[in-house]
Amino acid sequence: MLNKECLETYTPVLTLIARQLETHPEWSLEMLEAANRQLQAAKYRELRDRAKSDAEAVSHAQQVVSYRAHDPEEFFNLALLQAKQENLNEALQSLNEAIRLEPEKTEYFQFKAMLLETSKRFEEAYQAIHHALTLNPEAPHLLKDQNRIAGELINHLKNEIGKLTGDAK
């Protein structure tokens, strides 16, 4: 199940833990728990990457984040898979966790803007893409995204005003 590289990495660690078990049992148990978390995450990451369906991939990705709750990339990967399944609210929750853990990552805010735009939440999408531009002002693709979302927001607001005034289109 685990690839050779992973096993080669952890064999010396597990050997060291085994040697220290009698003389330092508490340390050994703590290290064994840490190694187990890493190995479990690696196992589920591998299963996620080899999954035959999107639902299976999401399930394995959820297992990965349960072992790697401090890793924003794993939450981002989960969000990508959830969005692929069109579970946009779940994708936003996972993405917000990635942002909480790594709030300066432009790509997270760009993806958040896309998810919000897809969900027709244009004002929030504009805020997210604006934040991405604040983090990376030299990115022309972000400016294009911001302009597109601004246009969508304006059209949405015009439609809402039209509904209120009876001029809905």
CATH H level of the largest domain: which superfamily?
Tetratricopeptide repeat domain
Q: State which percent range the strand residues make up.
A: under 5%
Report the count of strand segments: 0
How many structural domains are formed by the residues?
Answer: 2
Helix/strand-derived category reads mainly alpha
Could you give a short account of the major beta sheet? none
What is the CATH first-level class name of the largest domain?
Mainly Alpha
Low-confidence segments, given as residue ranges, are none
Radius of gyration: 22 Å
Judging by the overall fold, what is the CATH architecture of the largest domain?
Answer: Alpha Horseshoe
How confident is the prediction overall: mean pLDDT? 91
Q: H/E order of the elements?
A: HHHHHHHH
Which key features would you list for this structure?
169 residues, mainly alpha, Serine Threonine Protein Phosphatase 5, Tetratricopeptide repeat, 2 domains
